[in-house]
Amino acid sequence: MSKIPQNPFHDPALPSAYEELCRGRLRWDLLYSFPEQRPADRAIGDDAVAEIRRFLAERLDPEALDATRTLPGGFVEALRSAGYLNLLTAPDLGGRGFSLYNAFRVVTAAAAHSVPVAMIMAAQAALGVDAYLEAIPPGPLREFVRRHVEAGSVSGTADTEPMGAANQRRWTTAEPTEDGAAFLLSGEKVYIGNGPIAGVLAVSATVREGDRDAIRIFFVDTSSPGFRVKSWIEFMGLKGFPNGALTLDRVRVPRERMLVEEPGFRLTRSLGAAIVRGRMYLITAPSLAISRRCLDFARDFVRRRAVDGLQLGGYEIIQRMLATSLADAFAIEAVAEWCLLASADREVNLESDRVVAKNVGSVACWRVVENTMALLAAEGFETAASKARRGARPLPMERLFRDARGLRISGGVDFQMDNWTAQLMLFPAHYAPPADDAEPPASREALARLRAALSPANRAHLRFVQEWTARLARRCGDLARRHDSAELYRRDGLLIALGARRQRAVLHEPGARPGAATRAAARRRRRAGAGRRVLPRRPRPPRGDVAGRAPRARARAPARERPLAGERRALRRTGTGARRPPRGPRAGGSLTPGRERT
């Protein structure tokens, strides 16, 4: 019998909305009402967003950066001097001292201008040495890190190795010197953000401690003998982002610059926490920025294009494409708000939610990019330079397309993230269920208030989410009862499908703001097809087509549109599988953008 798997992000003292979701419950006492940024903090963020926009507009041409793959001379120093490499650093250490969400807003605004520049800022804020200060006790190491933070040194974390980041082992080794006063680090690191320009790096390495190997974090001054930037790494997108392959050849690091702490999942606890929070800035923020820009491109296109005298915006399919993209952008923003604002006014554990946000953001962003590319057709496929040569508006669709694809890979490739999510969070909820699994009364009370506040359409979406969540939890519980965890975890295809379904569950209440209903309807249509891969099938009667033209005995909706058994009644309200088109206003009937926030 295998060891019962445990969720490494679980905190017994704090509830987690995502962990509850994995058990088949929606904790509305946690989710209702949805967190909002406080007015005073929002005003600070508004000023910071306006400031970074002016800064970048004056100093950087994003198309030139994409073409030359080289940042302008002195640009990184200008970023540092303006405090954009210390967004989260406390003011007493020379930083801007922004809240988590304001730092996210600033990175998002930078990414709207240039994703590579935003990545420099995000890597420093999320994975720079400043991120480790909370875990470092008073002493020589803390003073070393503080000096670099106060000096504004560019920094980062060097963890990934040529064998791949998914490995639990680290081949970079730390060998103690004969006198025990220091360690000699040897190995290679690859895909290190800010690595080629960093003054100090947090480097993971394996140390032999007694009869076992342990992974430790060493703080390495990059001017040390034996440290070398082997090469600058160039990607298909993110042109100009300083990313490198690094070599350490017996680099001497004093013993006091080793961070000693209890092991966490795969790595040290501090490194794990830094990576989880870091993805919000490195992945989710650029995903939101790219999605918003694509929406701007799409609106511009449909306003100036017509087919046989009818504006593109007059076609229902175009309206649906725009509405779906708007809803996906809304979902990315809502997930970011939940993950970075919720802890300010409620007691909640957000670690699991932040893990999930990586795929929610990057995959939704990719859908928006694909949708926009399809809408713009040849103009979308054409390069910005080509459009400029013929006098057309040079929308950089190609650049966003390449950048967005990288976000699905960075921080953990999307399908593997689904696999890890299933193993680390979804199934531990069923192999080791809590002793008291009753729904708290506060959750039921919040649900009643929510139902009263929702529109009829969103009440239908709410019922669908509740039924789907409970049904998927029953399926996972059945698998956990029938299979040992080691046996089940070898079926990675099934785990990936289950993890993907669970990750896309709603992390905000339906109908809270414009866009929720469209998002919920689109999600239901996608799940109607994809869910059959992981949920048991049941016989269902044949149906006519949407217009009722095909014989009932022979007609079937396309595979991606067919409803799951038991959900047909709810899905009729959205038009999926209905015998006639639903009445009422068309989705996305107005091209006027909804309230969007930076």
TrEMBL record:
GO terms for molecular function: acyl-CoA dehydrogenase activity; flavin adenine dinucleotide binding. Keywords: FAD, Flavoprotein, Oxidoreductase. The keyword Cell division does not apply. InterPro entries: Acyl-CoA_Oxase/DH_mid-dom (IPR006091), Acyl-CoA_Oxase/DH_mid-dom_sf (IPR046373), AcylCo_DH-like_C (IPR036250), AcylCo_DH/oxidase_C (IPR009075), AcylCoA_DH/ox_N (IPR013786), AcylCoA_DH/ox_N_sf (IPR037069), AcylCoA_DH/oxidase_NM_dom_sf (IPR009100). Residues 521-541 have a biased composition (Basic residues). CDD domains: ACAD. Residues 507-598 are annotated as: Disordered. Residues 558-569 have a biased composition (Basic and acidic residues). Residues 158-251 form the Acyl-CoA oxidase/dehydrogenase middle domain. Pfam families: Acyl-CoA_dh_1, Acyl-CoA_dh_M, Acyl-CoA_dh_N. Residues 50-130 form the Acyl-CoA dehydrogenase/oxidase N-terminal domain. Residues 282-414 form the Acyl-CoA dehydrogenase/oxidase C-terminal domain. The keyword Oxidoreductase applies. It comes from the Bacteria. Its cofactor is FAD. Belongs to the acyl-CoA dehydrogenase family. This is Acyl-CoA dehydrogenase.
